[in-house]
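User: For documentation purposes, I need each entry recorded in a consistent format: the amino acid sequence on its own, followed directly by the corresponding structure tokens. There are two entries in this batch. Please keep commentary to a minimum and don't merge the entries.

Assistant: Recorded as requested. Entry 1:
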Amino acid sequence: MEIKPDEVEEVKIIGKLHDDDVKLVKTKGGFYVAVSKKKKESNKADALAAGSHQALVAYQVEKIHGNSFQPTISKSEKDRLPEVEDMTKILPDQAINSGLELFVLEKYNHIDFVFCKHNIELAKYETSYEKDILKIKNYNFKGFISPNKFVSEAIAYAMQKKMKDLGLDKIERKNS
């Protein structure tokens, strides 16, 4: 994969791998690529993970490289990436085998429920919570996936689980 300089919007350091910086490259199209040396003795940087969300790319690097990857500590809370919870295991085997994944991204009181295929976002529900209410602010389905029963059931289950974890009692839609 070659990314030309005029295609890059931003580069930031998200951690270290084998004492070398792991850089997160954001393209102007919103695609993220984590780049660093894959092996300690390597002389060149390689793509470690890529996807449509920076938190998911960092999560994949951590998942692949384990304790060898040390994420940076954010200078401010606003720079902190959301915490990622992998809920793929709740999906049917057929969906998992086809590459579908389900993640919950949480930062402060904002929670996104994200369906991906090979780290590319297909659908996302944006929510927040206050007091005992989970509020659905927005949802978006890309052209690759439709809001069918399977997707709806998986998202609903993930929301119920998260609500239970947080002690929330109600769901409210944006237009309620």
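Entry 2:
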Amino acid sequence: MEEKNQGIGGITFTGPITVNGPMFDIHDNQHVHIHTNGEERSDAEETREAPSDEELVKKLMPIFYNNEADVQQFLKEIQGMAQENITALVNQWVKDKRISDYGNSRKGVLWGILHDAGLYQRSKQNWNERVS
């Protein structure tokens, strides 16, 4: 009989599964790993290619009032930062008027840019609950 590795307090499913009950988001759990067809993919791995640093700065500029120094500082500060601290920093920078609070800038747009770049891995729902 084949032995399965349970991981750190984890549960291993083999074969197809169906989950009934309230919806949950596996993206909010850093310990989730997805195995398909014998290949492992951590949820943090993006299927799309992350934008280059130059493209990333260009996309972020309007949200940071076109202040490139602030964009660079923000990107430097969030490197290796816990996900909940990133949203706390965003809230502080909105309060300090370093990140725009206009329209959807700090909500969907900023989340999408950071998520696509692999800098914020949690769900948009998680982001919107934490960013004021």
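Summary note for entry 2:
The helical segments are 53-60, 68-78, 83-95, 105-116, 124-130.
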